[in-house]
Structure prediction request, 161 residues.
Amino acid sequence: MYHLKNGLSIGRLKAIAKSREALRKGKLDMAVKGYAEIAIVVSDLDKAKVFYCDLLEIPLVDYQPDRNLTLKLGRNQYMGLWLPGTWHSNYMTADDIQKYAGACDGRFHFVFEVDPPDVDRLCRKLANAGVKVYGPVLHADGASHAYFNDPFRHAVELWGR
Prediction:
């Protein structure tokens, strides 16, 4: 079998192209349809609220001062901002919760989709608040992107499309 420099075979490249075309047409049969919630660990809920709700203008739908914030990102998509060690489940033992959620204390990278004109506006708003913003920059596909860190050093990106 012939492989290109990137290690992919011609057959695999054709399969990727076929999947991309089906996805573009909205006809890709997938078990995972998207995400329901992104959850990250933060050390200060008030700082998180200022950053995500005030600066990035993401609506707050639930606030439990001793545990978490829940933000609404899309029609059925949410973002949970949790204080360390406060996530729990009524369906798991305390030991299982530690094994599962204890691994979630690292830093993450996530991308928010925004309308293209909002990339520049939000970059200005973040910069005026003292956030170091890299961008906006245009990618080869013409989409505008901006990169920055939240107060907890998570890598955040805006994608204008």
User: Anything to note?
Assistant: The longest strand covers residues 68-74. The beta strands are 37-41, 60-64, 68-74, 77-82, 109-114, 134-138, 144-149, 155-160.
